[in-house]
Amino acid sequence: MNRVFCTLSIAFCLLSIVLYFCQMIDKIKALAKKYAAEFIDIRHYLHAHPELSYQEFETSRFVQNKLYAFGIPFEVKAVTGVVGLIKGRNPGKRIIALRADMDALPIKEENDVAYRSTNEGVMHACGHDVHTTCLLGAAKILRELKDEWEGTVKLIFQPGEEKNPGGASLMIKDGVLNDPAPQAILALHVNTILETGQLSFRSGKVMASADELYFTVKGKGGHAASPQLIIDPILISCHLITALQQLISRNNNPFNPSVLSITSIHGGNTTNVIPNEVKLMGTFRAMDEEWRFKAHDIIRKLSIDLVHSMGGEVDLHIDVGYPCVMNNEALTTDAMKKASAYLGKENVSETELRMGAEDFGYYAQQVPACFYRLGTMNKARGITSGVHTPTFNIDENAIEIGVGMMAWLGTVVEI
């Protein structure tokens, strides 16, 4: 009899959980649909008023005003960052952070739309207007349903994702992960190669670290017709670039993704004069923190030894940037499962590895993290431009999905 009673009790509990999930999904979807037009208007305002990294003063004020209107307490962090707090039932039971970035890029927009950027030469070309909109929308829904979910949701609107040292690092230094400390953190990012209505997740390695390389190769300039009298920094630079391209293929495990690209060469300004120096710039990316810093040492040694062997000198500065993004396996698996319950398993896929970088990696070093992708492409409507392009745009039907998903995961995800 006791065994039967226990079995029935377990079945009843499971049924209760399923019913709760179904009811919450229906309520969140209904509110996301109800407020969809409002959320799209918010996105239009943000898109039309982009601000560069660490200059998001008006954007910050806009976010603060919205949180105030929603009845959500907030505080300012790292000058332009905003942190809101929504408490549900039993607020100490679970604390989940949801993050959005707010900065734009120095790109001149080419879209012919009513909400085109009004700040010449600055554009929301990476979807941060969408990210901020989705988090504001989720905040409104979570506040409205606060008596129907357990725990606390911390809303993190951060500056400066696009520029070192990364707004995430500044927010962390300013205590964003304290009082209360989240048990997990999640963020979404637009995906321009994924159709609207779909999401993608990936456990473990997701995005690469990103470090900037700055070389000044010094020689002895002179007349181009008398190369025997000079030390040619252009020739030395050519050898250095070639040698750097071999660094990864002959020092790194081929199963460990890594990229080194020299992206800029400046030296000389006429045909018959060899300059005194050449400046090179580039980027180094890795998916493994140990290899990343080992590679820095190899880059330094290789550069000095090679340039010296050809009679020159070299100054090298490695601007250490964002760490790689590592998604917590347990959290991501659960988020993917919950996303499938919300959207349908057929609409949730695995994210491909990317050598792009994200300062969300700083959060992932401190707290179990999940960085996932929101599909925004619509081939039928010609919405296919990639991020960081002057024609980037999204299918705005994705906003309703992004808002609802952030609200849903904020209430149910487990670690």
Question: Can you give a write-up of this model?
Answer:
- This protein is of the alpha/beta class and 415 residues long.
- The protein contains ten helices and 16 strands.
- It has two domains: 271 residues, Aminopeptidase (3-Layer(aba) Sandwich), CATH 3.40.630; 111 residues, Alpha-Beta Plaits.
- The strands form four sheets. The protein has an eight-stranded mixed sheet, with helices on both faces. Strands 10-12-8-13 form a four-stranded antiparallel sheet, covered by helices on one side. The protein has a two-stranded antiparallel sheet with strand order 7-14.
- Helix 1 runs antiparallel to helix 10, helix 4 crosses helix 10 and helix 6 runs antiparallel to helix 7.
Helices and strands in order:
Elements: H1 2-34, H2 36-48, H3 57-70, E1 74-77, E2 81-87, E3 95-101, H4 128-144, E4 152-158, H5 167-173, E5 184-195, E6 199-201, E7 204-207, E8 209-218, E9 222-223, H6 233-251, E10 258-266, E11 273-274, E12 277-286, H7 289-309, E13 313-319, E14 325-327, H8 329-343, E15 348-350, H9 360-366, E16 369-377, H10 397-412
Parallel strand pairs: 3-4, 3-5, 5-16, 6-15
Antiparallel strand pairs: 1-2, 2-4, 6-16, 7-14, 8-12, 8-13, 9-11, 10-12
Helix pairs in contact: 1-10, 2-4, 3-4, 4-10, 6-7, 8-10
